[in-house]
Amino acid sequence: MVTIEDLPDQLPSLTPAPPKKSRFKASRVTFEAEDPEARLDRHDTHISALLSRIIERDTSSTPLSLPAFTGLAFPKVVHRSENSSQVPLSSVGGKKSIFARQIAAQRLKEGKTPLHCAAEPTEQNLPPETSMDTDQCDDAEAPLGSAPGLVSGQGLRVPDSSGETQRIHKENQTRLQTMSQSEIQEEQKKLLTQLDPRLVEFVRSRKAQSVSFSASPSKQPGGRSSKESCPLGNVGRESCSSAAAVLSQRAQEVEMGGNDEEEEEEEEGKLPPPPAMTEEDLLVKPQKEWVHMDKLEPEKLEWMRDLPAPRRRGTRKEMQARFDFAGSLIPPTEDLPTHLGLHHHGEEPERAGYSLQELFLLSRSQVIQQRSLALGTLANILSKACAGKYQSVLKGSVTSTLLDAGLLFLLRFALDDSVEGVMSAAVHALKTLLVCAEDEECLDSTFSWFRGLASFPLLPSAQEEQDEEEDEVLDEIMKTTAKEKEERKTDHDVARQDVIKGLLKMKLLPRLRYILEVFRPSPRVVQDVLSILTRIARHSSSSATQVLDCPRLMETVMSEFLPTSWTAPSSPLPPSVYGLPQASAMKLLRVLATSGRHACARLLNSIGVRERVSCLLSAEVSELLLEPSEALRITTEAYRLWTVAAAYGQACNLYIDLYSALVKVLQSVQRALNPSDHLLPLQLQRVLALLSLLTQVTHTAGCHQELQAGMVSSQGEECPPPPPVSWGHVAGLQTSLLGHLKGFVKSLDNPLQKDSSLTLIPAYLVYLEAYYHQLSKQKCFKPVETLQELEQLTSEVLFPLFSHHIVRDLMRNLRSSSVVCKAQSCHQGPETTPSLPGLACPGWRDGPGLVGPSSPFPLLTSLILLLQTVTGIHKGLSCKFSGLLLSEPVIVYLRSCSQATSTLSHTRAWLLRHEHHLLYLLLRLAHRLVPIDAEVAKHASLYHQVALVLLPWLLPGSEYLAHELLSTVIFSKDFISEGHSGGPEAVELGELKLHEDTHHLTSPSLQTVGALLREACVQLPSIRGCFLTHLAHLESTVLVSRDAFLGRNPWINSHLLPELTGPTLPSDWPFLPLLSLYERTGAPDGGALAVEELPHGALQMVTHCLQWLLLLEVWREEALKVIPPVAKLARLSCVFLCSSDLFLERPVQKLTWGLFRLLTRRSRLDSLDLNVPPPGLASFLDLYSALLSQFEAVSFGDRLFGCWLLLPLQRRYNATMRLAVFGEHMGMLRSLGVTLEQLSIPIERFTSPPEDSLPLLCLYFRSLVTGTLKLRWCPILYVVALSHVNSFIFSQDAAAQEVEAARHDMLRKIYYLADKGTLLLHSLILSDLQTLQGVY
């Protein structure tokens, strides 16, 4: 049986289709008195109509000419050499064929005019009697048709066509002379309205062209005046006026810089064509002996002319961007010499430079040099675009434009080119597209910071395609995995969403391996290929795995660019880097190791990285047979790679093997940091990498004891093996490194060593924090000796460092260096492409920033990190550092952060993570000091505000920080100082004053906000437990984040942070318990469950959630400003939708009343916009419909629920919600007995302005007339309906016929309703709103 899918079961209804509207019909010219029959005949296209209109042409006055008689049997063959029988080009009007010129010559011999002259009569060939006076032709604008124009008369069916023309002309002249100027203008306007505007525009453009070909008075031959130069015949005064209008219109489109530019723009279209080239203009004169070179063909020599100078173009229209070979944008007004090679025979040959389209075309040329040149130019353009050089001068993103045009495929094709030069240019262009050198430098500079070795994967934001949504309907598509869907996509679709994935799908890795292995290119190409591989490894862990799995790729890198033995290069810049160690290759291994523990173990054990690291670090830098700078770079990268491995608890046996070499390097640190050494920046990076290595080894050694005990007690359960290094291996380094730190703190006073000291001190502080953090967990920990040691450390190092004037000056840059406060200098940022995210670091050294040289963030973060550990061991040292929290720069910075709003993107996330670390550490230090220091406690509310703002900012990977803030600061009574300093009492007094000012009584249930706040402060520990319970689903991620934050290296699986999909907690996290209960009970069951049927503890959970929301609304309003008021109202509506009687419980009722009063304060009502859909909902109307149904089902006339439903019925909101109440849910009007005092919203917000929706007014009237809406049932809506119907019936404003009919119909129905009508009519006559309020 054959079945056809998607075939409807029933036949479609045969309803007539709507009539089609023709655009051409609307544009036709019609006349009022036109006969429809004549109009039909005119448009009849039948063959009979056509035949009946055939009229024989009158040839009585046309002269006849017989062909000339010759003695030849056939016409003579035309030869090219017979120039005498041809007419010059100027006589025949343009370029004509040889045959046409022969015919023209024959007609001239017979005394006839050429055929082309008959249709274009000029002033010279008109008879004398047809000349017209042109005295009125001046520069002033004249309306269309104000001057007479004489036509040729050709086509008239009379013998004497010229005489008939003159008679018509004289008749027109006589009639025009009898008319006044106003009558002429009126007739002109009438004619213009009847004619097609396009036809009028065409005539005016023809007149303008004729004016443009006429010369100025100074250039007329014979000194003719401007009157004589006005064209006659087809052009009169009308042509002058239309030309002036055209030039005026063009002047409005031109962005002029002065009068000269305006004149030049106007003269642009009037320039005569250049004269044809003559033999004197040729650079090489033709010789007689040259065959077929005796004829001059000017049209073929036009390309040899000199290019015209580029004119000033001030038009507002976009102009095509042109670039030179260095990627610089060439201004359209710049006149460059031709020897630069920037002129060509494409579009706009007078302009120098190449457009992007021309470069694309040139890159596919058959000439090798052209392909290389185009690819190199594209690489330079990409480099400048990534740096943001074009943002102020070009519209749109250059990088996005190139990617949309297919740049990725162009480069991929070029990589397959067999010519090495073209392939090298393609590799360089691809590297410029993918890799930003300054981004890599920024990441390297933050490697030694706290948690600096971790980074986010550079994945684009996830985007769902509409095509996939349609495919999901099919069962077969539903069963396919994400990997299969990805494989079915084309290369274009994948590359459009993710450039790196697109390149991997195009088999980029095997091609790069082939280039390195077979081509063996130049050093620059090798560096570009290694940089591309590094960028691919940063994309994601799966991309890094593909790099590792590519056949022979890693083997080629290891054998050619990280050999175990090599010879010294013969020159500083060797022609080939094959066989020499490369720092970029070591960096590639480090980035691959960052992607995961297994990838790092694979590199160390299977590929031979362990041997390379040992070989490079066991010898002195001067003994590596490399250039000093390259030796420093590769040893620095070796230390960093080893650091990443040690951060997994791997490669620690190398620490034992190379211990002596490490100690020797530490001993030479002071000598290596010579301020006059040009290699000082590289030396500093090497020392920082070494300190990072020692920090991670210390963390790993500190876990040895725990892992040893865990392996004994695990009894077969999975447990990481203990590392080979123990605490005894690392304990001896602390003394040496502490001595270094003391020396660097003292050298802050030395101007030559200040910068070096500020660079190194943070790394030493991070090491000491790791040492003391792990020391407190060891069995060998001696509390008394450690406390004395910490006191000495504080007095000799930490306090002098904090009090130093250099550090104080540096702290003043906190706010200007902050990313959160957005106080950075306003410089143009780089271009961002959604499919190719970057870090946006170009220019980071030039201005203030978090990574800039004047940034205090690395020093303050490491200092407070160490203070957190020290004060945790020695509680008595806490008060000594209260000055840090009380310093003016820190207070100003925290206040700015409390008022800031953070946005999430790849360009900010990696910087925001470091700033979040500093804010968290400041809050933890405040948590330690607020209970014991009265001065710090004065700013407790500020610290609490910052904690509330920071919590929804925390990024993936910082779940442990969020858990700690919730456990300590967020719900701490010490930080909510209002709870124990008269805050609830102040709220109660404020309410009493408000009631006295409003002069009306309020329900006692509404005067409980102060008492509710007092109860909420008592319940803070329970509230904290409630929220921590609802965040239990984050437990696994919290544990992973805790291991990374506390240095539990053997438990860390990857230093690649989770994908950047959003913050750890949503911005509306205070509503989470309420939303989770609604998702479990209200959504599937429609809110029909009773409280007893809800999950255990649901009532207590909702109560705690509402208490916390009430506390935040009263005392921490700024913390909830990121949540729109409509979102708050929508989420609180879950109280009514979760259960059938949850909102009737007394604690829930009181708290919801309090929140309702806060949301409906007069200062908040204006900001409550229900026309905007709340986040997470398609529209507020859907939620309101659910609330109406719930009210009818379970409300029992509850006043709180009724107030909740009345709030959206204000006049300024969408009438659809009012229509839903009076149209679909009229039954609720019997139980909606809320009074105006209970609603606490002015009645004017419901009655003003008068209702303009006629269907709603009819519903109002029907409910009043039928008795569905009564005063004792629904007082507020009764007054609202009465007021609007009153305003409608007695309105004096002019209205449409439909509205007037409805108004009279209402009055007629009232009149015929007898007793009810009399009472209703009496109420309607009371037009005063206050009288209406007094009725009830």
From TrEMBL:
SUPFAM superfamilies: ARM repeat. Residues 1-26, 145-182, 206-280 are annotated as: Disordered. Residues 258-268 have a biased composition (Acidic residues). Residues 1070-1296 form the RPAP1/MINIYO-like TPR repeats domain. Signal peptide: none annotated. The keyword Lyase does not apply. This is RNA polymerase II associated protein 1. It comes from Pleuronectes platessa (European plaice).
